[in-house]
Amino acid sequence: MKDALASGVVRLMARLPLRLLQRLGMLIGALIAVWPNKQRRNALLNIGLCCPQLDHASQQQLRNRNLREFGKTYLEIGYLWLRPAATVLSLVREVRGAELLERRNGRGLIVLSPHLGAWELAGLYLAAQGPTAIFYKPQKYLDDLIRAARARSGAELAPITAKGIRVLVQALERGEFVGILPDQEPKANKGAVFAPFFGIPAFTMLLVNRLARKTGAPVIFMFAERLAADQGFRMHCLPAPEGIDSDDDLAAATALNRGIEQCVATCPEQYLWPYKRFRKRPNGEAPIYLGPYDDRQTLERIDRLREQLRS
Protein backbone atom coordinates (compact mmCIF):
# COMPACT_ATOMS: atom_id res chain seq x y z
CA MET A 1 0.00 0.00 0.00
CA LYS A 2 2.74 2.47 0.97
CA ASP A 3 4.76 1.57 -2.12
CA ALA A 4 1.76 2.09 -4.41
CA LEU A 5 0.98 5.44 -2.78
CA ALA A 6 4.61 6.60 -3.06
CA SER A 7 4.76 5.49 -6.68
CA GLY A 8 1.56 7.39 -7.46
CA VAL A 9 2.91 10.58 -5.90
CA VAL A 10 6.20 10.29 -7.81
CA ARG A 11 4.39 9.71 -11.10
CA LEU A 12 2.13 12.68 -10.48
CA MET A 13 5.07 14.94 -9.63
CA ALA A 14 6.93 13.79 -12.76
CA ARG A 15 4.19 15.32 -14.90
CA LEU A 16 4.90 18.82 -13.57
CA PRO A 17 7.39 21.19 -15.26
CA LEU A 18 10.90 20.93 -13.86
CA ARG A 19 11.01 24.63 -13.06
CA LEU A 20 7.89 24.33 -10.90
CA LEU A 21 9.23 21.23 -9.15
CA GLN A 22 12.49 22.97 -8.30
CA ARG A 23 10.67 26.03 -6.97
CA LEU A 24 8.40 23.88 -4.83
CA GLY A 25 11.46 21.97 -3.63
CA MET A 26 13.22 25.19 -2.73
CA LEU A 27 10.18 26.29 -0.72
CA ILE A 28 9.97 22.97 1.14
CA GLY A 29 13.71 23.11 1.81
CA ALA A 30 13.37 26.64 3.18
CA LEU A 31 10.67 25.42 5.58
CA ILE A 32 12.90 22.51 6.68
CA ALA A 33 15.66 25.07 7.35
CA VAL A 34 13.56 27.04 9.85
CA TRP A 35 11.52 24.29 11.50
CA PRO A 36 13.51 22.32 14.15
CA ASN A 37 14.03 18.77 12.85
CA LYS A 38 16.68 16.07 12.43
CA GLN A 39 17.59 16.88 8.83
CA ARG A 40 18.27 20.50 9.77
CA ARG A 41 20.34 19.52 12.81
CA ASN A 42 22.29 16.76 11.04
CA ALA A 43 23.16 19.00 8.10
CA LEU A 44 24.52 21.62 10.49
CA LEU A 45 26.48 19.01 12.45
CA ASN A 46 28.12 17.74 9.25
CA ILE A 47 28.85 21.21 7.89
CA GLY A 48 30.20 22.39 11.22
CA LEU A 49 32.54 19.41 11.49
CA CYS A 50 33.63 19.40 7.85
CA CYS A 51 33.93 23.16 7.33
CA PRO A 52 35.71 24.51 10.42
CA GLN A 53 37.12 27.38 8.33
CA LEU A 54 33.61 28.90 8.35
CA ASP A 55 32.33 30.83 11.34
CA HIS A 56 29.05 29.78 12.93
CA ALA A 57 26.94 32.24 10.95
CA SER A 58 28.47 31.06 7.67
CA GLN A 59 27.90 27.43 8.62
CA GLN A 60 24.22 28.18 9.25
CA GLN A 61 23.93 30.06 5.98
CA LEU A 62 25.47 27.15 4.06
CA ARG A 63 23.09 24.75 5.84
CA ASN A 64 20.09 26.87 4.85
CA ARG A 65 21.19 27.06 1.19
CA ASN A 66 21.85 23.33 1.28
CA LEU A 67 18.38 22.47 2.52
CA ARG A 68 16.83 24.47 -0.32
CA GLU A 69 18.90 22.41 -2.75
CA PHE A 70 17.96 19.28 -0.78
CA GLY A 71 14.30 20.08 -1.44
CA LYS A 72 14.98 20.52 -5.16
CA THR A 73 16.80 17.19 -5.29
CA TYR A 74 13.87 15.20 -4.03
CA LEU A 75 11.11 16.99 -5.88
CA GLU A 76 12.86 16.82 -9.24
CA ILE A 77 13.79 13.16 -8.86
CA GLY A 78 10.52 11.83 -10.31
CA TYR A 79 11.03 14.01 -13.38
CA LEU A 80 14.55 12.61 -13.82
CA TRP A 81 13.31 9.03 -13.34
CA LEU A 82 10.19 9.05 -15.48
CA ARG A 83 10.53 11.56 -18.30
CA PRO A 84 11.96 10.14 -21.55
CA ALA A 85 15.73 9.68 -21.37
CA ALA A 86 16.27 12.06 -24.31
CA THR A 87 14.28 14.78 -22.53
CA VAL A 88 16.28 14.40 -19.33
CA LEU A 89 19.64 14.21 -21.10
CA SER A 90 18.82 17.42 -22.98
CA LEU A 91 19.04 19.20 -19.61
CA VAL A 92 22.84 18.73 -19.67
CA ARG A 93 24.07 22.10 -20.98
CA GLU A 94 27.80 21.56 -20.61
CA VAL A 95 30.24 18.76 -19.83
CA ARG A 96 33.55 19.72 -18.28
CA GLY A 97 36.34 17.16 -18.47
CA ALA A 98 34.47 15.03 -21.03
CA GLU A 99 37.77 13.64 -22.32
CA LEU A 100 38.09 11.70 -19.04
CA LEU A 101 35.17 9.50 -20.13
CA GLU A 102 37.19 8.10 -23.03
CA ARG A 103 38.09 4.44 -22.56
CA ARG A 104 41.51 3.46 -23.83
CA ASN A 105 43.25 0.19 -24.69
CA GLY A 106 40.08 -1.82 -24.20
CA ARG A 107 39.98 -1.14 -20.48
CA GLY A 108 36.81 -0.28 -18.62
CA LEU A 109 36.34 2.86 -16.56
CA ILE A 110 35.19 3.19 -12.93
CA VAL A 111 33.05 6.32 -12.56
CA LEU A 112 32.29 7.55 -9.04
CA SER A 113 29.27 9.82 -8.57
CA PRO A 114 28.88 11.20 -5.03
CA HIS A 115 25.55 12.36 -3.58
CA LEU A 116 26.07 15.80 -5.08
CA GLY A 117 23.73 17.76 -7.31
CA ALA A 118 21.50 15.48 -9.44
CA TRP A 119 23.15 12.09 -9.04
CA GLU A 120 20.30 10.31 -10.85
CA LEU A 121 21.05 12.44 -13.92
CA ALA A 122 24.75 11.58 -13.63
CA GLY A 123 23.94 7.87 -13.74
CA LEU A 124 21.64 8.28 -16.74
CA TYR A 125 24.24 10.37 -18.57
CA LEU A 126 26.94 7.76 -17.95
CA ALA A 127 24.78 4.94 -19.32
CA ALA A 128 24.10 7.02 -22.43
CA GLN A 129 27.85 7.08 -23.17
CA GLY A 130 28.16 3.32 -23.60
CA PRO A 131 27.54 -0.07 -21.93
CA THR A 132 27.35 0.51 -18.18
CA ALA A 133 26.91 -1.51 -15.00
CA ILE A 134 25.68 0.44 -11.97
CA PHE A 135 26.18 -0.75 -8.40
CA TYR A 136 22.73 -0.62 -6.85
CA LYS A 137 21.30 -0.91 -3.34
CA PRO A 138 17.77 -2.42 -3.47
CA GLN A 139 15.23 -0.11 -1.81
CA LYS A 140 12.37 -0.89 0.56
CA TYR A 141 10.01 1.36 -1.39
CA LEU A 142 9.83 2.25 -5.10
CA ASP A 143 12.39 -0.42 -5.98
CA ASP A 144 10.73 -1.50 -9.23
CA LEU A 145 10.28 2.11 -10.35
CA ILE A 146 13.87 3.04 -9.51
CA ARG A 147 15.34 0.00 -11.26
CA ALA A 148 13.30 0.69 -14.39
CA ALA A 149 14.31 4.36 -14.34
CA ARG A 150 18.01 3.62 -13.96
CA ALA A 151 17.96 0.91 -16.62
CA ARG A 152 16.04 2.86 -19.27
CA SER A 153 19.16 3.98 -21.11
CA GLY A 154 20.55 0.46 -21.11
CA ALA A 155 22.42 0.24 -17.80
CA GLU A 156 22.79 -3.14 -16.11
CA LEU A 157 22.03 -2.93 -12.39
CA ALA A 158 24.37 -4.86 -10.10
CA PRO A 159 22.99 -5.40 -6.57
CA ILE A 160 25.20 -4.79 -3.55
CA THR A 161 26.07 -8.48 -3.15
CA ALA A 162 28.95 -10.75 -4.06
CA LYS A 163 27.09 -11.56 -7.28
CA GLY A 164 26.78 -7.84 -8.03
CA ILE A 165 30.50 -7.33 -7.55
CA ARG A 166 31.17 -10.10 -10.08
CA VAL A 167 28.93 -8.24 -12.53
CA LEU A 168 31.09 -5.11 -12.04
CA VAL A 169 34.32 -7.03 -12.57
CA GLN A 170 32.99 -8.65 -15.74
CA ALA A 171 31.80 -5.30 -17.09
CA LEU A 172 35.23 -3.75 -16.56
CA GLU A 173 36.93 -6.73 -18.18
CA ARG A 174 34.72 -6.16 -21.24
CA GLY A 175 35.87 -2.54 -21.37
CA GLU A 176 32.60 -1.05 -20.09
CA PHE A 177 31.71 1.69 -17.62
CA VAL A 178 30.97 0.93 -13.98
CA GLY A 179 29.07 3.50 -11.91
CA ILE A 180 29.32 3.62 -8.11
CA LEU A 181 28.04 6.00 -5.42
CA PRO A 182 31.21 6.20 -3.30
CA ASP A 183 30.03 8.09 -0.21
CA GLN A 184 27.55 5.70 1.37
CA GLU A 185 28.55 4.21 4.68
CA PRO A 186 29.22 0.45 4.26
CA LYS A 187 27.08 -1.82 6.41
CA ALA A 188 29.70 -4.50 7.06
CA ASN A 189 33.13 -4.17 8.66
CA LYS A 190 34.68 -6.32 5.94
CA GLY A 191 35.85 -4.30 2.97
CA ALA A 192 35.93 -0.90 4.68
CA VAL A 193 38.23 1.21 6.84
CA PHE A 194 38.06 4.50 8.69
CA ALA A 195 39.66 7.22 6.56
CA PRO A 196 39.58 11.02 6.86
CA PHE A 197 36.72 12.83 5.12
CA PHE A 198 37.15 16.57 5.60
CA GLY A 199 39.42 15.58 8.49
CA ILE A 200 36.80 13.44 10.25
CA PRO A 201 37.17 9.62 10.39
CA ALA A 202 34.53 8.17 8.04
CA PHE A 203 33.85 4.47 7.46
CA THR A 204 34.85 4.18 3.81
CA MET A 205 34.41 1.45 1.19
CA LEU A 206 37.38 -0.39 -0.30
CA LEU A 207 35.43 -1.73 -3.28
CA VAL A 208 36.72 0.94 -5.65
CA ASN A 209 40.32 0.20 -4.74
CA ARG A 210 39.85 -3.53 -5.17
CA LEU A 211 38.09 -3.21 -8.51
CA ALA A 212 40.81 -0.90 -9.82
CA ARG A 213 43.60 -3.20 -8.70
CA LYS A 214 41.94 -6.37 -9.99
CA THR A 215 41.04 -5.04 -13.45
CA GLY A 216 43.53 -2.23 -14.02
CA ALA A 217 40.62 0.10 -14.82
CA PRO A 218 41.23 3.83 -14.23
CA VAL A 219 38.95 5.79 -11.89
CA ILE A 220 37.29 9.19 -12.33
CA PHE A 221 34.64 11.22 -10.52
CA MET A 222 31.55 12.64 -12.20
CA PHE A 223 28.60 14.70 -10.93
CA ALA A 224 25.78 16.87 -12.28
CA GLU A 225 25.75 20.40 -10.86
CA ARG A 226 22.31 22.02 -10.79
CA LEU A 227 22.36 25.43 -12.43
CA ALA A 228 20.04 28.38 -11.84
CA ALA A 229 16.32 28.10 -12.63
CA ASP A 230 15.68 26.91 -16.19
CA GLN A 231 19.42 26.66 -16.87
CA GLY A 232 19.65 22.87 -16.64
CA PHE A 233 22.73 21.05 -15.35
CA ARG A 234 26.48 21.09 -15.84
CA MET A 235 28.28 17.75 -15.82
CA HIS A 236 31.74 17.65 -14.24
CA CYS A 237 34.33 14.89 -14.78
CA LEU A 238 37.39 14.98 -12.51
CA PRO A 239 40.44 12.71 -12.31
CA ALA A 240 40.70 10.58 -9.20
CA PRO A 241 43.46 11.54 -6.74
CA GLU A 242 46.67 9.58 -6.91
CA GLY A 243 46.67 6.52 -4.68
CA ILE A 244 43.06 5.44 -5.14
CA ASP A 245 44.38 2.12 -6.49
CA SER A 246 47.02 1.74 -3.76
CA ASP A 247 47.58 -1.64 -2.15
CA ASP A 248 47.50 0.23 1.18
CA ASP A 249 43.83 0.23 2.22
CA LEU A 250 44.02 3.42 4.27
CA ALA A 251 45.87 5.30 1.53
CA ALA A 252 43.30 4.18 -1.07
CA ALA A 253 40.29 5.11 1.10
CA THR A 254 41.87 8.47 1.92
CA ALA A 255 42.35 9.18 -1.79
CA LEU A 256 38.74 8.23 -2.51
CA ASN A 257 37.46 10.64 0.15
CA ARG A 258 39.79 13.36 -1.10
CA GLY A 259 38.23 12.97 -4.55
CA ILE A 260 34.75 13.42 -3.06
CA GLU A 261 35.97 16.54 -1.23
CA GLN A 262 37.22 17.99 -4.52
CA CYS A 263 33.80 17.42 -6.07
CA VAL A 264 31.98 18.99 -3.11
CA ALA A 265 34.21 22.07 -3.31
CA THR A 266 32.63 22.93 -6.69
CA CYS A 267 29.11 23.38 -5.28
CA PRO A 268 29.10 22.65 -1.51
CA GLU A 269 25.49 23.75 -1.10
CA GLN A 270 24.42 20.81 -3.33
CA TYR A 271 26.02 18.02 -1.29
CA LEU A 272 23.81 15.67 0.73
CA TRP A 273 24.83 17.16 4.07
CA PRO A 274 21.80 15.81 6.00
CA TYR A 275 23.05 12.23 5.42
CA LYS A 276 24.54 10.58 8.52
CA ARG A 277 27.96 10.04 6.93
CA PHE A 278 29.68 9.61 10.33
CA ARG A 279 27.09 7.30 11.89
CA LYS A 280 29.68 4.57 12.58
CA ARG A 281 32.46 5.82 14.84
CA PRO A 282 35.91 4.48 15.67
CA ASN A 283 36.07 2.71 19.02
CA GLY A 284 35.94 5.15 21.90
CA GLU A 285 34.70 8.13 19.89
CA ALA A 286 31.43 9.84 20.78
CA PRO A 287 28.37 9.47 18.52
CA ILE A 288 27.66 12.56 16.44
CA TYR A 289 23.97 12.62 15.54
CA LEU A 290 22.52 13.35 18.96
CA GLY A 291 21.23 16.35 20.83
CA PRO A 292 18.45 18.91 20.55
CA TYR A 293 17.42 20.55 17.30
CA ASP A 294 18.23 24.07 18.47
CA ASP A 295 21.00 25.70 16.39
CA ARG A 296 22.77 27.32 19.32
CA GLN A 297 23.08 24.02 21.17
CA THR A 298 24.05 22.20 17.97
CA LEU A 299 26.88 24.68 17.31
CA GLU A 300 28.08 24.25 20.90
CA ARG A 301 28.06 20.47 20.37
CA ILE A 302 30.09 20.89 17.17
CA ASP A 303 32.73 22.85 19.07
CA ARG A 304 32.92 20.14 21.74
CA LEU A 305 33.18 17.37 19.13
CA ARG A 306 35.96 19.20 17.30
CA GLU A 307 37.82 19.66 20.59
CA GLN A 308 37.54 15.92 21.25
CA LEU A 309 38.88 15.16 17.76
CA ARG A 310 41.89 17.41 18.37
CA SER A 311 42.71 15.75 21.71
UniProtKB/TrEMBL annotation:
Tell me which GO cellular component terms the UniProt record holds.
plasma membrane
Q: Where is this protein found?
A: Cell inner membrane
Organism superkingdom: Bacteria
Location, primary (coarse class): membrane
Q: Which residues form the signal peptide?
A: none
Keyword ATP-binding listed: no
Instruction: Cite the GO molecular-function annotations of the record.
Output: acyltransferase activity
One annotated GO biological process: glycolipid biosynthetic process
Q: Which UniProt keywords apply?
A: Acyltransferase, Cell inner membrane, Cell membrane, Membrane, Transferase
In terms of InterPro entries, this protein maps to: LipA_acyltrans (IPR004960)
Transmembrane stretches, start-end: none
One Pfam family name from the record? Lip_A_acyltrans
Name of the protein described by the UniProt record? Lipid A biosynthesis acyltransferase
Q: Which organism is it from?
A: Thiocapsa imhoffii
